[in-house]
Write a structure and sequence with these properties.
Order of helices and strands: HHEHHHEHEHHE
Number of strands: 4
Bound molecules: flavin mononucleotide
Strand content: 5-15%
Number of helices: 8
Largest sheet: 4 strands, antiparallel
Structural class: alpha+beta
Strand order of the largest sheet: 1-2-4-3
Distance between the termini: 30 Å
Length: about 220
């Protein structure tokens, strides 16, 4: 394995916001899970639990989630960021506008941006959805370990040509998810990962996000 091979995988991965309906073979999903579970975790606790939907169960969940979103208000297990300010707000806006521009939503088009946002709850048409949870007792560190798992999941999937998108939006309906999937209350639901094969021609998949170079985030002490 060379750094350039790893960089190539990192460059190929992007958050997919339009999927084909074709299912991913279960042995490939198992390969992704096996690879993702190789990430480090504090005390090697491996705190991730994953609930994965396939086939008609994904469609059933998609419908139930959309019904929930119209009937209820968001209540994530893990409170969402209080605000994004300064450079974080700029980056948030930049990737939001890139998406809206790609799908033809103009500035000020509230109905258009809401329509695109609601695609989250249609799981962007994905044939599979993975719900990631961590034991409440491990607090922020369990969530941190699961973050590594989520990233590795997306990269392992990419290595198999399978597209992914981590989704906090799905986790915003915590109580519903606990009920629907029978996820115990001593676990925090952190996010979902919708996955499948990318609809490469879809406008929502035609933009890429940028990254700051190390100079923007490193303080060298030497
Ligand atoms: C924990 C987490 C939650 C995310 N939640 C959402 C989400 O709810 N909806 C969405 O469209 N994208 C979501 N994303 C995708 C980010 O917007 C995306 O990773 C970021 O803009 C960088 O783009 P890229 O993944 O294409 O490189 C999430 C990403 C992460 C890591």
């Amino acid at each position: 394995m060379t750094l350039s091979a790893l960089n190539s995988l990192l460059d190929q991965r992007h958050s997919c916001r339009a999927f084909l309906s074709d299912p991913v073979p279960k042995d490939q999903i198992n390969q992704i899970l096996t690879s993702a579970a190789r990430v480090p975790s504090w005390c090697n606790a491996q705190p991730w639990n994953v609930t994965i939907t396939s086939g008609p169960e994904t469609d059933k969940f998609r419908k139930a989630l959309q019904d929930e979103v119209t009937a209820d208000t968001p209540s994530p297990d893990l409170p969402f960021p209080a605000s994004y300010s300064g450079i974080y707000q700029e980056r948030r806006r930049e990737c939001g506008w890139a998406l809206y521009e790609a799908v033809g939503v103009e500035r000020g088009d509230r109905a258009g941006s809401t329509r695109q946002m609601m695609e989250n709850f249609a799981l962007f048409g994905a044939p599979h959805c993975a719900i990631i949870s961590s034991p409440t007792e491990l607090g922020a560190y369990g969530a941190m370990d699961c973050g590594g798992f989520v990233t590795a999941f997306t990269l392992a999937a990419q290595a198999l040509g399978i597209a992914t998108i981590p989704q906090a939006a799905v986790a915003s309906y915590g109580p519903f998810l606990h009920r629907y999937f029978n996820i115990p209350d001593d676990r925090l639901i952190l996010c979902a990962i919708s996955f499948g094969y990318a609809d490469k021609d879809h406008p929502a998949n035609r933009f890429r996000t940028s990254r700051a170079a190390p100079d923007a985030f490193v303080e060298w002490v030497d």
